[in-house]
Amino acid sequence: MSDIHGVVPAVITAYNDDLELDLENTGSVIDSLLNAGVHGIFVAGSTGEYTLLSIEERKRLIGYVAGRFSNRVPVLAGTGDSSTRVAVELSECAENYGASAVVVSLPHYPRPTETELCEHYRTISRNVGLPVFIYNWPEATGMDVRPEIVVQLAKEGVVQGIKDTHTDIRHTVEILRQVDESFTVMTGYEANFLPALCVGMAGTVCTAANVIAEELVRIYDLFRNGDLGGARELQFKLLPVIDLLLSHPAAVKEALTTLGFSPGPARPPILSIPPSTRKAMREALKALGRTTRPSSSAERLG
User: Fold this and answer.
1) Would the pTM of this model clear 0.85, i.e. be above it?
2) pLDDT (tens digit, 9 = 90+) per residue, 187-201?
3) What structural domains and CATH numbers belong to the chain?
4) Catalytic residue positions?
5) In 3D, which of 47, 70, 38 has the Cα closest to residue 266?
């Protein structure tokens, strides 16, 4: 049984002005998240722009984060790839660096059959001693995994958890209903965080926690302490901010920059967020009591 639970930010990957990895500024963001009380870190995931990194960059990033932070919280490493060989290579690397688990996105191009999908995860599991989590995000990949397949792999001991970023919470609930308590089910949608806790999920691995980690941890603590009303009130309060943070791939980095961090830009083809979104983000953060940097003249004109 893994000890993955609570709020686990899918942390951004910082870049310098030349769009090269900036590990120190990535670490600065993670330090702030740990100070906010998060229960783990997910590195090299979708929010970390893993599809825009080379294999060697992913190894460097995982090695840096696991080496620096794994003695403080569990570090989940994103090692998914449509190539089974590459996914195994990255997973072995994550294990060697001291990661706590690997989170393996569904191979989706070329699209495998369910038999091939199962063999993909079996092969990874045979080659590493870490817990293996399925990462399911059909909205992004166009590939979904049926709850029955997740349950089958869980019963075989191939996978020990899932990050289910599914718009239909019933999909995640159906997995939860059929597995035993040793299997870790995490929602990937922070808007579903409190409902997920109410039905027995372990927590959330999510994007918005880069920016609102303290508030999400507070929801978790309120729920655990039996204050469902307080947790509900805070969940509702966060929904407008969550919507903004998920509105554009660069929105989280923009919010972190507004709060004084240096995450750098997103890598192309992702561009900056529109001025209207930037303004709305700044106002939403202020409404949460967050101190923001003064707007530049360009932002004001935008």
Assistant:
1) yes
2) 999 999 999 999 999
3) 6-216 (3.20.20.70)
4) 135, 163
5) 47
